[in-house]
Amino acid sequence: MSPLFLLLLVVMPVGFGLVSLALPKRLSWFLFFFVNILVLGVVFKLKSSTGLTWDLKFNLFSTGAVSLKLAVTHLGWFFLAISSVATILFSMFSLDFNDRKHATFAAPFWMILIGATNGIFLSQSWIAFFFAWELMSWTSLLIIGHGKTPSFKAGIYYYALSFFGTMAMMAGIWLLYHRTGSWDIATTTLRIAADFTTHRSFAMTVTALFAVGFLAKSALFPFHMWPQMAHAEAPDDFSAYLSGIMIKYGIYGLALFVIPVFAMTPKGTMKIISGVPWPMYALAWISAITSVIGTVMAIFTNDMKRLMAWSTVANVGYIGVALSTNSSLGYAAALFHTANHMIFKGSIFAALAAVKFRTGEREMHKLGGLAYVMPITFMTFLLGIIAAAGIPPLSGFNSKWMIFQALFEKKMVFVATVIFFSSTGAFLYLFRALHTVFLGQLSPRFRHVKEAPMLMSFSMIILMILMLIPGIFPGTVTGFFNNILASFGFAPIKTTLNSMTGSTASINGTVIAAVFGLAVLIVFIMFLLGARQHKVAMMDNYTCGEDPEDWKVGPERYHYGYDFYQPIKPLFAWMPLGAVEKLYETLRRSIERFGNLVSSISADGSRLGWTFVIGILIIIVTGVMK
Amino acid sequence: MKYSIFLIVAPLAAAFTIPMLGTYLPRLSKLIAALMLLAGTALSAWLLTAYKAQTVIVIGGWMPPFGISLHVDLLSLISVTAVYGATLMATLYQLFDGQEKKPYFYMLILLLTAALNGMILTGDLFNLFVFMEIAGISSYALIASGNGAAGVRGALKYMIVASLASVAYLAAIAIIYSTAGSLNMATVASGMRDLNPVVGALVVLLILASVFTEMEIFPFNSWVPSAYQGAPSSVSALLSGAVTVAAAYVALRMSYIVFGQGMGDIIRYGKFNVTNILFWLGVITVITGQAAAYAQADAKKMLALSSVAQMGIILFAISIASDLAIYGIVFAVIAHSLSKLLLFMVTGKFVSASGTSHWAKWKGLGRENPLSGGLFLIGALGILGIPLFAGFWGKFSIIGAAFKAPGVSWIGVYIILAATVVEAVYFFRLAHLLFEEPETKPVSIKSSIWFRISTALLAAAIIGIGVYPAPIDKKVRKIPTELSSKNTEGYISTAYRAMGR
Amino acid sequence: MNKIAAIFLIGLISAGALGVYISNLPGKKPFKRNGHNDISRAYMTKTANGGKRNVIKKGDRKLENSSSNIVTAVVLDYRGFDTLGEVTVLFAAIAGIGLLLGGSRRRRIRPAGPVISSMAPWIAAFIIITSAYIFLHGHLSPGGGFPGGAMIAAGFLIMVLGMGSRAPKIFKTIETFGGLAFITVGVIGFLKKGSFLQNAFGSGEVGTLFGSIFLGILYAIIGFKVAAELSSGFGEFVAEEEGKHE
């Protein structure tokens, strides 16, 4: 297997993307699908090529070799595999989604983004990583904006936070290089871990800088507010990719660098709280807060995409908590939940995109009853939220179970309680979303709505299968973990094709699925044998003859799903939600005001001589300092 | 190498021909201007490739310090090539895509070019002053030739501040000559070591004040927004593409050679810690420049303030004074020059298409003219320092140098990194606005073949340098040795060897 | 008005005092011996190329540039490149005026009364002859190309105001050729002697008109150039269209 295939994985999508800038829209989406097929093929050929390396070293500025190194590692390959599988399905979906009416110009940039993603997962030198990271950032900004003003406002918010993190990472990379003389990720990780004994504050600074970068990208607190804007405003098919795959870059970074650093730190160098080093404990609480915020905000949102974006934030919180346990079980749980979340969130957003595609509507209280006309979409969404809620026999249950097991192992009781609250709260908004959009009364104006087009339905069916398989046979995903854990020095976890072993128990996914299947079968038989149904037309009993205008209730209130959880809102009034957003807004406005102040100095021509004098004063002051 | 004198004299000669040609054959005179700039670019590029070692070129046959000398080294040749390239692009832009201008306009551009190259190549302080004056006067007139009162206002502001700067510089020269007794940079450098510290401090103050005015450092840059806004787009491109290069070069020369005796250590001169001055002013300029650019509603002012911020970063890098910082400076200056040229050329088109330079009114121009929109994006990515585009290597090296340097340079890095976030916001804000759905159908931009060729070349250069910096890197490697005084290849040693001492 | 004059005077005096103070601050003066600059002494004794000379006497031959006016020697020979720059500064300034003000419509100035308009040519002639003397003898007595050229322009102005003449286009041509001539002299020096603006014409006896022909030629060129520039500058003012900027 030639190392050039690694370079190809990065360069080929970028090349195709640049070419498709000149092509008409439909053709570019075909090309996009084709590129993803190629990527998937190469990725699976690389399965057994761990350790394959492509390195471009060049001497720049006599600082020694700048190396752009791509290599197949276990962790990298895992992420590559799950993201390319998910992406191929999304690209199939997009092919039908971008018909004449809905097509966007996103395809060329999305292709470049695929190349950048591959680059991120393959990079083994910080420079290559940074290149791919930045490329990913600005192309995703352009896709999110896709030529609409409110979308761009959402996008630039995301980009500003992410770029801030990227700049922090740049600082970290240079500090690493000056200390270790190497750009190589594996080498620097080891060196920094060792540095915790001797150069404590330096190692903390470097790790903190990288952590900021990865936290910003994965939308952990205090960077948690951008997905609800960006994921919601992005083109509908791209939202699946955003929420499914792109949010995981930060997780990949944490898993690649930050967690191994703390895992490799010699015992006794850091203060341990609840079984983990204190920075990891901090990460646990950050993630826990993130998941609570995500859940609460999701409960009270009316826009379905925004709701699911907050759900993503909450899920990333779970992953962060899992990573913070600093144990092999936690690491494995994080990886498992990452893979599962990619699929189930992707399918949720795909279903929502299909709904929007057919109905043109994004607000939940204007929809309802779509299960009758879009059954496949409904099933996908149903399985998606069941997986998201963590109910067996779907994949989400297994990964959430593993997360809790990891927490129990380290006896992080308080964190576990918070996560439990958030996880259960997820049920509130997930099921509401399902019921409001798909169940209930079908509005007359949507009676004619057809099921999603063929390719979209087909991709959704495959997504459903992909949600079932890790639930019934957890070993299909967990089988990859032991190699990854070994590469970072973690102990292996016990897992077979059907079962997993945690810290307090072990479960057999197949058995659970069988039990569930049996129960469903029994109930279904009872349903068939039971009382007859009597179909009633919707409008017959809808308002029971009353006229809601009498009670000053507007039309949107006809839908029971509007602002469904409004009664329990006062329960959460004590939470300072939106505080961080206000902080950022204040910051932004003060920069603007400062800028205006500076401009006003130069606008007034009569002050020019004074500026010169002030300049001389500044020179004198700074010259005699120190 | 001795043909370097023609880098200054040739555009001067071409400028002298224009009064006559402009009266009888105006079109020919404009063409001659463009051809001369092309020849100059070719000459400097050739000299760059044929470069072997530093050369001192004596003028008038009198050995320095009795006469004037030019000092040709790698940094000056690179700067001269950048100046010529930028001026050529700007002139072609005005000639084929801009308003009809009198032949005197092109003559002033030639004079400006000659003056900037003179500033770069000279080794004599008073000669530098003379060329600064020529550059200044040409700039005032060029800026004032923009449309309406804005041009005159901008030129007037520039003239007032620059006149103060000239007086300061002249006073510094007077002090230097009366105390040290020489005007040659190398002899002054070694001779000024023993001066009275108060005198030294005064000299530093005056020279730096004057250099900073040219280099658009806060708070000497109050002229910048009005001047860039009022000037025609080609002149704004010239200002940020060529004049800043010369100004940064002069600042570097002054700091390292005249004040510092080569690079490496903290520069102390007289009572002043010059490194400190450069550091703080650089950082303040970055902060104020980026914030002001973010708050701007006028596109040309926004780009001008972005140039200001870049100059702040370069000044900060000069204060670091290490090898890596020098690499960063050269790359940053080249990348800034290329990207700003591209940006000003494209925004010039937008201004003429939409009739206003308020960027909020440019909604949708990119949809109608995707190539121009894409070029704007490329220019913006070049300035921001995104990897795979030209500006990355400069910013990358400067950050690395700042972390490696002893002292408080690292504070500056964090400030600059944070300021870059602001920069990203305002550039992408505009880049995306171009592609948003407009209310009314925007105007289609007409551009000449020269515009397309020039912008394509610039875009290719920006991406090319970003992806493959090696050719420039090979040249840049030798520069720190030439600048340092710790070896026999340095500036001062070479100068003294030429003088026969 | 008085206040401004007072501030100006005070500023001037304090600047002068500061200058004297600074020049006499303690500290080694590396290029000064016996109170004189190395460089200034070399200029005065014409030893920039080495050698030992004390006093310049009439009749001395081949003394560097053989000019008896030291100002001219410094301006045109030792630092001739700066002078090229200064000429260019004036050139640029006039070009700026031309660019911003110049119009094509020529305004006729009404000639002044018969007394002035009849005497104007005579006065102008005298002025022009005097200024020609001044710039030709630049290397022998105080004066030179700049004052000479300015005076010629003054003469021309008298003609314009007195008789209503217009700046003929020939001035532009003189400007051009003046500039090119200067550079040509420099290039001749480059080709024959190796440095730009090096004296390729040799030097003769100190104090004679053709003793320092190099300087003489240069000052003549400068005189014509400055005269043409200033005169065409006046022409631009005269032809300025009301309130229009280009």
Explain what this protein looks like in three dimensions.
Chain A has helices spanning 4-20, 25-45, 74-97, 106-122, 126-145, 149-180, 185-198, 200-217, 226-233, 236-246, 248-264, 278-299, 304-324, 328-359, 375-389, 395-409, 413-438, 454-472, 475-478, 481-487, 509-529, 538-541, 579-603, 608-624, and strands spanning 53-59, 65-71, 272-273, 276-277, 499-501, 506-508. Chain A is mainly alpha-helical and 626 residues long. Among the domains of chain A are: 1-125; 579-625. In chain A, helix 6 packs across helix 9. Chain A is globular and about 90 Å long. With 501 residues, chain B is an all-alpha fold. Chain B has one domain (4-483). Helix content of chain B is 74%, strand content 3%. Chain B has 21 helices and four strands. Chain B has helices at 5-24, 26-49, 74-97, 103-121, 125-144, 148-179, 185-191, 197-214, 224-230, 233-259, 274-295, 299-320, 323-354, 365-368, 370-384, 391-404, 409-433, 449-467, 470-476, 479-483, 491-499, and strands spanning 55-59, 68-72, 268-269, 272-273. A two-stranded antiparallel ribbon of chain B has the order 1-2. Chain B has a two-stranded antiparallel sheet with strand order 3-4. In chain B, a hairpin with a 2-residue loop joins strand 3 (268-269) and strand 4. The longest helix of chain B is centred in the first third of the chain and has 32 residues, at 148-179. Chain C is mostly helical and 246 residues long. Chain C has two domains: 3-32; 66-243, no CATH class. Classes of the chains: A mainly alpha (626), B mainly alpha (501), C mainly alpha (246). Chains in contact: A-B, B-C. At the B-C interface, helix 1, strand 1, helix 4, helix 5 and helix 6 of B face helix 1, helix 2, helix 4 and helix 7 of C.
Q: Uncertain segments of chain C of ≥5 residues (pLDDT<50)?
A: 241-246
Q: What is Rg of chain C?
A: 22 Å
How many H/I helices of chain B? 21
Q: Report the major sheet of chain B.
A: 2 strands, antiparallel
Major sheet of chain C: size, sense and barrel closure?
Answer: 2 strands, antiparallel
